[in-house]
Amino acid sequence: MAAFEDCNWYDYPRYYDVVFGADTAWEADFLERVWGRHGATKRRGRTRVLEPACGTGRLVIEMGRRGYDGVGFDCNAAMVRYAARRVSRCKGLPVSIREGRMEAFRVRGRFDMAFCLLSTFKYLLSEVDACSCLQGVERVLKRGGLFLLGLHLTDYERRRPEHERWVGEQGELRVVCNTRTWPADLTMRRERIRTRLTVTRRGVSERRLESDWQARTYDLKELKRLIGKVGGLQMVGGYDFGEAMPEERKLEEGMSYVVAVLRKS
User: Is residue 1 scored above 80 in pLDDT?
Assistant: First the structure.
């Protein structure tokens, strides 16, 4: 069997879409449910949504199909091109895609809701960059607007690597994604993540790709302390996204994947 190629797997948006595309409608349902519960439902005009680090655009495009005006941005040029092509194929879709970084982005206008799921926020490795992202989102939200921030919390007592596996299929293409996360470096507040993709087409091996990452770690106390540094955002709700059907609940240590609902005051 061929060895894995070192790469940045975000340079392969088609494979990324195969792995995560099946959850898009479910995630959009969740966003709408949270907006209906916590958002300002009596605004005039269409609801505007923003997705920092939108990747292939699958989620912001799905929100556009549901009647929202959407803007998504990502720092990976391959992802941006892929997402923009998807938008161009949907005539009249009220969504725009652009290149930008989470910690330093510019968008026009104000938004009712922003969302950043799948722990993408943890790629901001410093406190300065994390704060800059939150402040940037706070600036472009309307008063009362929401930011849904989803990330895996770190168990600093864990001593063994964790493993997650996803399998996606679209037509003749099948992608198996295996992700391993090593225990956190407490001093640096970093964790190593390795993602391996095994790609087959019609049952024949096509690519074997491997990416290594560093991510910033957060337990619940660290997350709340970070949010507290941005005076204009208040946590008004939380969801345990590790559940099959996430329900609103008080966030507690020991939860794995959480979504914090932040409102601009």
Answer: no
DSSP state of 117: -
The pLDDT tens digits of the residues spanning 134-189 come to 999 999 999 999 999 999 999 999 999 999 999 999 999 999 999 999 999 999 99
Max intra-chain CA distance, the chain: 58
H-helix or E-strand spanning residue 137: helix 127-140
Determine the residue type at 169: E
Distance CA 155, CA 184 (A): 8
CA atoms within 13 A on the CB side of 240: 13
CA distance 142 to 109: 9
pTM: 0.95
**Token pair for 190:** 């970093």
Is residue 97 within 8 Å of residue 54, measured between CB atoms?
Answer: yes
